[in-house]
Design a protein that fits this description.
With 276 residues, this protein is mainly α. It has one domain: Glycerol uptake facilitator protein, CATH 1.20.1080.10. The protein contains 14 helices and no strands.
């Protein structure tokens, strides 16, 4: 056997894995979903910490490249360590398109995993807040987290939707390449480049935003952090309702389109025959 699977073999493997995911018990989905939310949150907090002051020394482009590079650890933990991530599970839509999975099975997995990812993300938000690590760099880390959250909730619906498409197109390709790899090193390389590309490009990941924006929401009340971010009096849009309606909703829909249709759907049409 060669060192990697062919695209047609990947398609078959993803379909088999999707069926297994659909049959997982609720307890397993909840636990693995919470873990995935934490893992992606680790990538988000790491990218914030590492790059909070990097742009002024190395430029915006290089700072975004480094943010993407370190963020990729989140999906590595999901893929290799084992966890259930909503954005990656958008690949299950291809299995439904081939009629080898019922709509109810798909929605059951997505809903449980999505909510569990949210719970895991919020768990890490609480841990990071009480860790006090946002005070690093004379409140620089907290200020950067606040700026990131504020920028995300001020996107238009169309902007957030399109950035969601671009994000999960690349995230699901990262999972796709990881499936192709037959050893850990290959899986790490398969994950790294697409994830680096999505973050550096500025696309929007619904599960990552479940960490990025709530962190900003809890830091919003701290006047010292708002002042360090230069946002005092300019945080009117940073609310829970704006987070859910102006960012999470369009980004989630975009993620489903990008990963479910443009990756799983496209490859299934290319390599699998439709059933009558």
């Amino acid at each position: 056997m060669g060192g990697f699977l062919t695209p047609c073999e990947i398609c078959k493997k993803v379909e088999e894995t999707s069926k297994q995911k659909a049959s997982l018990p609720v307890r397993s989905l909840i636990v693995l979903g919470i873990l995935a939310g934490v893992y992606i949150g680790f990538g988000a907090e790491l990218s914030t910490t590492v790059t909070h002051d990097l742009a002024k020394y190395m430029g915006v482009g290089f700072s975004k490249f480094i943010a993407g590079s370190v963020f990729s650890v989140g999906l590595m933990l999901v893929v290799i360590g084992g966890a259930e991530l909503f954005t990656g599970n958008c690949l299950m839509l291809g299995c439904r398109m081939q009629r080898s999975m019922k709509t109810g099975e798909l929605l059951r997995n997505w809903s449980i995993v999505y909510l569990s990812n949210f719970a895991g993300s919020l768990l890490l938000v609480v841990i990071m807040y009480y860790s006090g690590l946002w005070k690093l760099g004379h409140l620089g880390v907290g200020a950067e987290a606040l700026k990131i959250a504020n920028a995300k909730v001020n996107l238009s619906f169309v902007e957030a939707f399109c950035r969601g498409i671009g994000c999960n197109w690349l995230v699901c390709l990262a999972v796709w390449l990881a499936v192709a790899g037959q050893d850990v090193a290959s899986k790490i390389l398969g994950v790294y480049f697409p994830i680096m590309a999505f973050v550096a490009s500025g696309f929007e990941h619904s599960i990552a935003n479940m960490y990025f924006i709530p962190v900003g929401l809890v830091l919003k009340a701290n006047q010292a952090v708002a002042g360090a971010a230069g946002l005092s009096g300019n945080l009117a849009e940073l609310t829970w309702s704006s987070f859910l309606l102006h960012n999470l909703l369009p980004v989630t829909i975009g993620n489903i389109v990008g990963g479910g249709l443009f990756v799983a759907g496209a490859y299934c049409l290319a390599f699998r025959h439709h059933k009558n």
